Amino acid sequence: MITPIDRGVAKPFHTDNAVYCLARSEMDRASERERRLRRYQRRMARQQKGSNRRKRTIVSIAKLHTKNANVRNNFWHQATRSVVDNAQIVVIENLKLKNMTRRAKPKVCDITGKYLKNGARAKTGLNRVILGTSLGTSETMLEYKMRSAGKPFFKVSPHHTSQECADCGYTHPENRATQSDFLCQKCGHRDNADHNAALVIRKRAIKLILHSGTELAGAHNNVLQPGTDANPCKTESGNSRLRCGLSVKKDGGLTASRSPVL
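The structure assignment produced for this chain is given below.
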């Protein structure tokens, strides 16, 4: 069966039947380390450059950064190992983290020529949180562990996965009223927003795998996307290259008997 993963900041890994996030005690310790880090940074700003006290403060800051990195890597190793051991096929979103963490573009008034508020401070905070979650590291670990286990690993387009209804397919920004609540404005389907997004990811993967016009793209040939010459009116006869080693179940799911030829 396909295991879809919706990645985010509030919940790093959300599959169709599990949620992977730091324990409450570890989150509290991380918050305490952030407070200490800000205190050390303020202290360093007041200290004289080249002094011994400033050097000791820099060492303390470096230790906190190392601790945070070790905690993140340990969490991602455990989370990805659990996913790989309990999944046959894994599908994630093909997130463009470099584009997601770009700085806000400046806004200039056409009349006065002065700069307007562009939400740069909020965007900077969001970028810091995204980079601090290490979503790119999670993808790297998951990919090489799936490859070592001989299991298929695919990516699909991330566009509007948080706004699309997993039941009827209706897509609208108002479907996701809050960060955690999803309510379809058309069919009334209600679900956790991250769980609904995971179901949408699996639905897209199954549709692309079964379609004969699907192509594999990306640096590792694991991104599912419609072919440039694919006929949208053509029936889903199945892609022999993608379905090598994949068997279709009666409920529409897919199972892997062996890794497909990529």
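Interim note for the steering committee: Residues 84 and 149 are 8 Å apart (CA to CA). The two ends are 19 Å apart (CA to CA).
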